[in-house]
Amino acid sequence: GLRFMLVDLHPMRPGRTYMSSFMFNIGMVLLCALPSVQFAQEAFSQYARFTVIRQLFGIQVQNLQFFQYFWTNNVFIYAFLAFSFLTMLYLACKPGDQNAMNGPALQQRIKSRRA
User: Fold this and answer.
1) What is the H or E stretch that residue 4 is in?
2) What is the C-alpha R_g of the chain?
3) Mind listing the pLDDT tens digit for each residue in 47-91?
4) Which residues lie across from 3 on neighbouring strands?
5) What average pLDDT does this structure show over 16-25?
6) 62 vs 67: CA distance, rounded Å
7) How far apart are CA 99 and CA 106, in angstroms?
8) Minimal CA–CA distance to 38: which of 75, 89, 85?
């Protein structure tokens, strides 16, 4: 599933996850992909000078009237870095899910499914 701040959004459990929860999680991953590409394009702008992604983000989207304020003040970059920093702090305090660390129980579930 997806965890946003301290809340689980549409948790995915084996055999009990609805298709709508699966599609919601896919949509959230897709929403996160665009800012990551934009961040990479800004960070490596010299390498992506004559590419299509530079034309899309660096020229066309940057000059849209609504997004112009956000682009000139680097709001997207600061928001991306802030969420990354907050995630790093949270994961430093609470490193992982207890279910993910429970190796023997996971191995037993896998063996029981094979039988």
Assistant:
1) strand 2-4
2) 20
3) 878 888 888 877 787 788 887 888 788 887 788 888 889 888 888
4) 8
5) 79
6) 6
7) 8
8) 75
Gap between the Cα atoms of 72 and 66, Å rounded: 11
Q: What b/e readout covers 30-51, taking b as 16+ CB neighbours within 10 angstroms?
A: eeeeeeeebbebbeeeeebeee
- CB 57: neighbour CB atoms within 10 A? 23
CA distances from 8 to 4, 96, 103 (A): 6, 13, 22
Helices (H) and strands (E) in the chain, counts: 6, 2
Average pLDDT of the segment spanning 40-46: 83
| 5-22 mean pLDDT | 73
